[in-house]
Every structure is written in structure tokens, then in C-alpha cells.
Design a protein that fits this description.
The protein folds into 2 domains: 2-208, 2-Layer Sandwich (Alpha-Beta Plaits), CATH 3.30.70; 214-256, no CATH class. Helices cover 44% and strands 27% of the residues. It has 8 helices and 9 strands. Strands 1, 2, 3, 4, 5, 6, 7, 8 and 9 form a 9-stranded mixed beta sheet that branches. The protein is elongated, with a radius of gyration of 27 Å. The N and C termini lie far apart (101 Å).
Length: 257
């Protein structure tokens, strides 16, 4: 056995509702479908030079380069869930971990070849747990590690948004979380969960002007056009309203009634 400290990008990927899926589909059919999902995921992981650490209702992965971890997560969410019809959530954190390489004897007995220990793994797990379906969340450490380092594999239209400050159960200091994605739904601040409490941040993330679609521009312009038209009508009618004889005539007419 060998133990050494390393700084890695840790990715926790979770299949939402996997237990209910197995119960509904049955063991054999669920196993076939989940193996199909895992083959797709591993193929994508190899493409981005990731490493599988563990697998249960999802994957625990590590990456040497944080940008590879983020590109993997974004590409995964846009390609694999639509094919397997299962929702997923992904948390990404960068931190120091103890990397344990097991002996050949231990692996023959069933131990995993490589294990990761340390609070960084817990932070990644908490980050994943608060995600909504289809979302990718980064910790502030992960965000700092990839800032200005997007590359040709980063999906076009990718946007990074700070979604708030969260307190993780078992973690001393609050953690700032960032959502990364190309759709508004994937960028919305997640609420508190059983082990994560939201301390503050934006209530809602809105689309940027350059990202708005035609229908969004339509609904953005309509109320503003109506306000301008109302002001214009008031300006045209103001001389009539401010005319004293006219006002006097209106009052006399009301009194006669």
C-alpha cells in the first residue's frame, strides 16, 4: 500500500431516482440499462483523461486538470441523460486528498486499486447533493482553478454564475457555489437540502442580453413599449387635461347630473 498527497479535481456524478428505477424495471432490465449508461460514461471519461475511483449509484472520478473535469461534466449532461432517460446531478471540487494505492494482494481480495481520502471528497459529495436535476455545480476552489482556462472542448454558450453561499454539514467554513451550463434552468440557485443549508445569494438567475432568444426579447420589450406608449398618450392629452375651461365644463356637467 502507498499513500501520497495530491491535488485533484474530484467529480461526483449521481443518478437521481436510481433505486426507484431498479424497483420499477426489475433487476435484469435495470442492470442492462445501467451497464449501458456506465459504458457511455466511461467512454466519455477516457476522452477527458479522467479516472474512475468508485461506482455505485453514479461515479466518483478524479481528473488531473480541472478544466477536463468541467468539460466532462458539461458534455455528459448534454449527451448521456437524453440517451438513457435518467436524470443526473454533478458536483465538482478541487482540493488536496490522500491518494491510497492498494497492494496487489488487497485488490485480489476485492479492494479498489485507488482510493481517495480527505475532506475534499466530502465537499465534492455535498456539492453534488444540493444540485438539481441536470445541473453541474462547482465549488469556489474549482471555479478558481478553471478561471480563464476554457478550451476548444468547452461547449459553446457555457456560462458560469455564482448561485450563493452554502453551509455543508460537517464542513467548518461556508462554501460559495457556482453553476455552470448553457441553459437558464441549469444555472438557477438550488435550495437547501438535508445536509446543505443555503445562507444567501441571488434568488433567480436571468438571461443575459446576448443570450436571449427571440421569444425572450418579445416578452422583454412588450411591457416597455406599453409604458412608452402610455407616456406618449399622456403627453398628447396633457394640454387638454390642463385647460381650465375644459375642467370647469366637466365639473359643471357632473354637478348637473
Amino acid at each position: 500500500m502507498e499513500i501520497k498527497e495530491r491535488r485533484l479535481a474530484i467529480v461526483l456524478l449521481d443518478l437521481i431516482g436510481s433505486t426507484a428505477f431498479v424497483q420499477r424495471a426489475g433487476a435484469m432490465k435495470a442492470a442492462e440499462w445501467l451497464q449501458y449508461h456506465d459504458r457511455l460514461t466511461r467512454s466519455l471519461m477516457y476522452r477527458f483523461e479522467g479516472r474512475e475511483i468508485d461506482r455505485s449509484d453514479g461515479f466518483l472520478l478524479s481528473f488531473e486538470r480541472p478544466i477536463d473535469a468541467v468539460n466532462f461534466a458539461l458534455t455528459y449532461q448534454s449527451t448521456i441523460p437524453p440517451r438513457v432517460k435518467l436524470n443526473t446531478r454533478i458536483g465538482v471540487h478541487v482540493g488536496n486528498v490522500a491518494e491510497v494505492t492498494q497492494s496487489e494482494l488487497d485488490t485480489l481480495g476485492g479492494a479498489k486499486p485507488v482510493e481517495l481520502e480527505g475532506i475534499a471528497k466530502n465537499v465534492a459529495a455535498r456539492t453534488m447533493s444540493v444540485c438539481t436535476a441536470g445541473q453541474v455545480l462547482l465549488t469556489a476552489d474549482a471555479m478558481a482553478a478553471i478561471k480563464g482556462r476554457t478550451n476548444s472542448f468547452t461547449p459553446k454558450g457555457t456560462r458560469y454564475v455564482c448561485v450563493g453561499l452554502y453551509r455543508f454539514k460537517g464542513v467548518a467554513e461556508p462554501v460559495s457555489l457556482f453553476a455552470v451550463g448553457s441553459t437558464l434552468d441549469s444555472l438557477q440557485p438550488p435550495p437547501s437540502s438535508e445536509k446543505v443549508k443555503r445562507l444567501g445569494g441571488p434568488k433567480k438567475v436571468r438571461s443575459r442580453a446576448r443570450d436571449r432568444k427571440i421569444i425572450e426579447w418579445f416578452w422583454w420589450l412588450i411591457p416597455r413599449i406599453l409604458i412608452i406608449e402610455l407616456i406618449y398618450i399622456l403627453c398628447l392629452m396633457w394640454p387638454w387635461f390642463s385647460n381650465k375651461p375644459t375642467i370647469k365644463a366637466i365639473l359643471e356637467f357632473i354637478n348637473e347630473q
